[in-house]
Amino acid sequence: MIRIGMIGISEGNGHPYSFSAIFNGYDDESMKQSEWSNIYAYLRAKEKVDFGICGAKVTHIWTQNINESIKIAKATKIENVVEKYEDMIDYVDAVIIARDDWQCHREIASIFLEADKYVFIDKPLSLNMNDVLCFETYLKRAKLMSCSAIRYSPELDIIKRDINEFGKIKLIRGTTIKSWEKYGIHMLEGIFSVCPFTFRNIRRNICSHDSFTIETAEGFVVEIDCLGDKSPLTMRIEFYSDTSYFRADCMDSFVAFKRTLQNFIFMIENSIQPIETNQTVELMRILSEGMKRCGL
Predict the structure, then answer these.
(1) What is the 8-class DSSP label of residue 213?
(2) Helix (H) or strand (E) run with residue 96 in it
(3) Where is the Gfo/Idh/MocA-like oxidoreductase N-terminal domain (predicted)?
(4) Tell me, what's the pLDDT at 215?
(5) Which of 70, 133, 147, 266 would you label with 286, given CA atoms 20 to 30 Å apart?
(6) Taking 80 as the threshold, does the pLDDT of residue 277 lie above it?
(7) What is the pLDDT of residue 295?
(8) Percent of the chain with pLDDT over 70
């Protein structure tokens, strides 16, 4: 049994609940009371057989708030709540850092990576390229994995299958919510999973939300719009070629999350990195360059 520790929580990110439930199943009443109604809705829509990843279980949890840790543990059947994340290090084989405030990722992950544990870091890995360079060694050694689950979105399966017959790409457009810092990675990861490109330049478009145009060596343009906190949920990626059009509304969170976690377990069991390291590093570079255009 692969024993997994769940670490952290951040505002607006319910991944500790959803990830843990995918591994362990969930307690209906406790999950209903969690205030994550969207997560409860898509978990409840699944059959019992849909839960669980063979040979793995979340056994420990730590968050910044012990009361929140207890709530997550009760909702997702986690047996052990710890007061410091270091307390789980001798009892787990791997950890999932399920918080998207990237500034803390290196500090937390380093303790486990140096102890030869496997680590999954929630998106984005880091927008500090010095941190990314430190992580690169562990990515190459298949000790560390980090991505947006949109990489494994089932809504992208068809275009991945048919990309060689799709025609010459002219434009790829990604539209999502929140900010470039938080959600730009969703669009980039999904695009790269279908059509990885060679980054040339990025410019910020002048408008009321985070909007960027990316120039590629392949000659097509990538446009990404992050519409802010008040916009209705959207995870849309559109592909335009000289002969075809394809739209993916990447809204099946459960399947995308489960595929992501299955790939993490695959990495642990086989010591094979499921994502090319240069892609992960390049995605962080594009995000970082975009932040610079914002003056950050």
Answers:
(1) E
(2) strand 94-97
(3) 52-132
(4) 98
(5) 266
(6) yes
(7) 67
(8) 99
pLDDT tens by residue, 194-235: 999 999 999 999 999 999 999 999 999 999 999 999 999 999
Q: Among residues 196, 202, 200, 240, which one has the least CA distance to residue 217?
A: 200
Give me the pLDDT at residue 296, please: 57
**Cα separation, 140 vs 26, whole angstroms:** 34
CA-closest candidate to residue 10, choices 74, 102, 78: 102
- Positive or negative torsion for Cα 171, 173, 179, 180: negative
Name the DSSP class of 86. G
DSSP state of 233: P
Alpha-carbon 210 to chain mean position: 20
* 149 three-class SS: helix
Q: Given a cut of 90, is residue 53 above it in pLDDT?
A: yes
pLDDT at residue 114 tops 80: yes
Which residues, listed in sequence order, are joined to residue 95 by a DSSP beta bridge?
5, 119
The type of residue at 260 is T
Q: Show Cβ contacts of residue 247 under 8 Å, excluding neighbours closer than 6 positions.
A: 236, 237, 238, 239
**The one-letter amino acid at 103:** Q
- What the block records as the tokens of 272 is 């094979």
- Please provide residue 112's backbone torsions phi and psi, each rounded to the nearest 5 degrees: -80, -40
Q: What is the pLDDT of residue 168?
A: 97
Which pair of tokens denotes residue 99? 């918080």
SS3 150: helix
- Closest residue by Cα to residue 20 from 98, 109, 108: 98
Walk me through the domains of the chain, giving residue ranges and CATH numbers.
2-150+254-276 (3.40.50.720), 151-251+287-293 (3.30.360.10)
